[in-house]
Structures are given as C-alpha cells and as structure tokens.
Amino acid sequence: MYEYPSMLPQHVVQLLNQQKRDIERLEQDLQQLKKELADLKEQPKQRVEKIEYHFDQLKIEKLEGTLIIGVTPGSTGEIDEWSVNGQTEENLSFPLSKEQAEMACRIQDQIIRYLDEQGPAVLNGLQEQYQCVIGEQYKQLIIDDLKQQVNRRVRHYLQNGSAAQKNMSEEAIVEKMKQDNYKALVQHFDKRKKGEN
Fold first, then answer.
1. Contact of 188 with 161, CB cutoff 8 Å
2. 176 contact partners, CB below 8 Å, separation of at least 6
3. Which comes out higher in pLDDT, residue 118 or 168?
4. Within a domain: residue 45?
5. Same domain, 26 and 100
6. pLDDT in tens, 173-184
7. I need a labelling partner for 122 at 20 to 30 A (CA). Which of 19, 28, 79, 85 fits?
C-alpha cells in the first residue's frame, strides 16, 4: 500500500486509501466486463428462421370491423364490374318492381335462415377439410359478413345479372346464392391456409 506523507491529516489518508481501493475494484470489474464481452463476441450468433403465430389461442375481448371474404360481384369470375358514369354498382340504385321486392324479401329470409342454421355446420366441415381451427367468434364474424352481403347479392340477381339470371326462379336464385357463399368460404379457407404456410 502506498504511504502518504506524514504531514497529511489521518482522515485524508484514510479517504485516499478508500478511493484507491474503490478504483482497484472498479478496474477489476472493468476487466471482468471486457472478458465477458469478448466471450459473447466469440459465441456463434443465433438466427430466428420462422416465427409462427397462433392467433386461435388468443382470447379476444372485443372484435369490431367488417370482414370481406369474397362474396362480392366479380368474386366468382362470372360477373363483370358494373360502372355507369363513374359510379360503381353499389352506388347505383334501381327500384325493384313490387313482385321483385316481395321475391327479394323471401330470398333474403331464406338465405339468412340458411346462414344461421347451416352456416356453422358448413364452416365446421371446411375446418375439418382444411385442418384449420377457427374460433366461434370468428365463425360468427364470417356468418355476419355473409348476411350483410345478402341484400346486395339478391338485388344483383334480380336487376343486374345476365338474361338467364333475370329469369331465374326464386329457388334457383337461393341455390345460386348458397353456391356463391360456399365458393367464397372455400376461397377464404384457401387464402387462410396459404397464409399459414
């Protein structure tokens, strides 16, 4: 230990000795940290190749918004996009005849009843077919989204479809809409499955 001149008061000597010990301890700590840093630099780097998210395991408190799964004019590849003076089909409104309006109400009721009664079973079948599990809230969201599109689809078949579609019977329109819904669900599950892989 270093000897300080005797003319320094004792308490100053003690303080200097304490500071010297502190400096030596800090130098040892610094050397230890340098050694650890060098060890870390020598270790092989870790890479994360793929992160998989399992959203079906999340608990969702509140889910809002509109889910568009593909049932829109043009989604089946049979209907061209309609546009008149820059307005799209959704913005154009043509009145239905009394007979068409009554038919539209009956068709809408049948399709909504079908979606409520058969929609969950259809979704369960697609889940099994695609080996893809979706939660009950997500199933209901899909069904609600399809229901929101029913009115527009019925109007499309009654007003804007080809001549063959305009002459379709009520039962034929109901069956066509069921087929369209199924095709849209299959497309949705295809996209979902491709997105997971």
1. no
2. 157, 165, 168
3. 118
4. no
5. no
6. 899 899 999 998
7. 79
- CB 89, CB 167: distance < 8 Å: no
Q: Is 62 helix (H, G, I), strand (E, B) or coil?
A: coil
Block residue for tokens 């030596």: 24
Give this prediction's pTM. Answer: 0.51
Full domain range(s) for residue 19 = 1-35
- From the list 179, 112, 121, the residue with the least C-alpha distance to 145 is 112
Q: Per-residue pLDDT averaged across 143-166, rounded?
A: 77
The reply to whether 101 and 30 lie within a common domain is no
Q: Does residue 67 sit within a domain?
A: no
Handedness of CA 47, 53, 59, 60 (dihedral sign): positive
What is the residue type of 190? Answer: D
E-only strand ranges, the chain: 83-84, 87-88
* pLDDT given for residue 68 in this prediction: 65
* CB burial of residue 43 (10 Å; 0-12, 13-18, 19+): exposed
